[in-house]
Amino acid sequence: MRILLILAHPDPNSLNHAIAAAARRTLEENGHEVLFHDLHAERFDSLLPAGEIPRRATLPDDVARHCEEAALADGLVIVHPNWWGMPPAVLAGWVDRVMRPGTAYEFVGEDGGEGVPVGLLKADRAIVFNTSNTEANREDTVFGDPLERIWKDCVFGLCGIQHVTRHVFRIVCTSTPEERRAWLDDAARIVAETFPPEA
Ligand SMILES: Cc1cc2nc3c(=O)[nH]c(=O)nc-3n(C[C@H](O)[C@H](O)[C@H](O)COP(=O)(O)O)c2cc1C
């Protein structure tokens, strides 16, 4: 399978980078083609310019490549920390520019944009790995776990991805090296279960 792996974290020594590396290694060991993007390292420009909003806009080469890869992917893996209940801005901008009409979704027939679009992504499954410093019960009751709805409903659900597995590694700031090593094993296991070895 062809898997698009997107990482949004500025620190190469972060747990997020280690999770993405574990995911990439597992996918490659299982015979998958990995299209990997470290958005900070490649300095992905998160600002959606006005000229890119129209359905048939001409896109700069890097954005066009991201769109092509998203459209061709059989699966997606997204890795990012919880920042204010949101993805880091670079990843929010990636969604703005890459999950675009004609690539990720489309309004059809008489629907001028007021209705429910159809999802266009070929991928039928995705994994979202998040890291957090908030205890699970507080995240649910006080904040409503916004990342759960953002990824499962607002983004991937709308773009046609049926099966979304989200896993949160917490609490990072008090975690031990042993815990973090176990988390990387968990990440590898979830990736292997979602994207089993190629036959
Ligand atoms: C700008 C910023 C905003 C953050 N907001 C939250 C938050 O809303 N909830 C939370 O649990 N942690 C929050 N954190 C903590 C990060 O989630 C935590 O540092 C990260 O998950 C740890 O992973 P890492 O070691 O890969 O950086 C925030 C951190 C930063 C830098």
Chart the SSEs and their pairings.
Blueprint: E1 2-7, H1 15-29, E2 33-38, H2 61-72, E3 75-81, H3 89-98, E4 105-106, E5 118-119, E6 125-132, H4 136-143, H5 146-157, E7 163-170, H6 177-194
Parallel strand pairs: 1-2, 1-3, 3-6, 6-7
Antiparallel strand pairs: 4-5
The protein binds flavin mononucleotide (FMN).
Question: Can you describe this structure?
Answer:
The chain has a single domain, classed as 3-Layer(aba) Sandwich (Rossmann fold), CATH 3.40.50.360. The longest helix has 18 residues, at 177-194. The strands form 2 sheets. A 5-stranded parallel β-sheet has the order 2-1-3-6-7, sandwiched between helices. It has a two-stranded antiparallel sheet with strand order 4-5. Helices cover 38% and strands 20% of the residues. The chain is built from 6 helices and 7 strands; from the N terminus they run E-H-E-H-E-H-E-E-E-H-H-E-H. The protein has 199 residues and is α/β, with parallel strands linked by helices. The N and C termini lie close together (10 Å). The structure holds flavin mononucleotide. Residues 9, 14-16, 81-85, 131-134, 172 line the site of flavin mononucleotide (FMN). Flavin mononucleotide binds next to helix 1 and strand 6.
- Structure annotation, total helices: 6
Helix content: 25-40%
Order of helices and strands: EHEHEHEEEHHEH
Q: Ranges with pLDDT <50 over ≥5 residues? A: none
CATH topology: Rossmann fold
> Which sheet architecture does the biggest sheet show?
5 strands, parallel
Mean pLDDT: 97
Level-2 CATH architecture: 3-Layer(aba) Sandwich
**How many DSSP-defined strands?**
7
Beta content comes to 15-25%
Distance between the termini: 10 Å
What ions, cofactors and ligands are bound? flavin mononucleotide
Instruction: Using the alpha-carbon principal axes, give the shape.
Output: globular
Radius of gyration from the alpha-carbon trace, in angstroms: 17 Å
CATH class designation: Alpha Beta
Strand ordering within the main sheet: 2-1-3-6-7
Number of domains: 1
GO molecular function: oxidoreductase activity
Family: Belongs to the NAD(P)H dehydrogenase (quinone) family.
Domain Flavodoxin-like fold: 1-170
InterPro entries: Flavodoxin_fold, Flavoprotein-like_sf, NAD(P)H_dehydrogenase_qn
